[in-house]
Amino acid sequence: MGGRAEWLGLSLSMPSVYKQSMRRRLALLPTHCPNCGARIVPTPKEFKHWRQAADLTQREMAARLKISAAHVAYLEHGKRSPSAALIVRYRKFMPN
Fold it and tell me: How far are the Cα atoms of 10, 14, 67 from residue 2, in angstroms, in the given order?
């Protein structure tokens, strides 16, 4: 930046406390079964496939799951990890 802040001797950099909290977090749920190694958490592609197989838009799926449409998009793009309860609700839309 510059200008007035530098003239006053102020630092405009982000404190390290904020930098630490902005780090990418790891999923709290295990993604694979510790006994057999089978995948527990569906992949983003599976979430999208299930929604499309149910012939629903992201908004319609969000309304049925009681979450926001943005969260459905985040799940389908792998930007968020689903909770165990959400996985259970989502599996109701699994194709047979």
Answer: 10, 15, 43
Whole-number average pLDDT of the chain: 79
Per-residue DSSP letters for 2-16? -THHHHHT---SPPH
Q: For domain 28-93, give the CATH number.
A: 1.10.260.40
Q: What Å distances lie between residue 70 and 39, 58, 61, 66, CA to CA?
A: 25, 8, 11, 12
Give this prediction's pTM: 0.63
Per the structure block, which two tokens stand in for 35? 């006994």
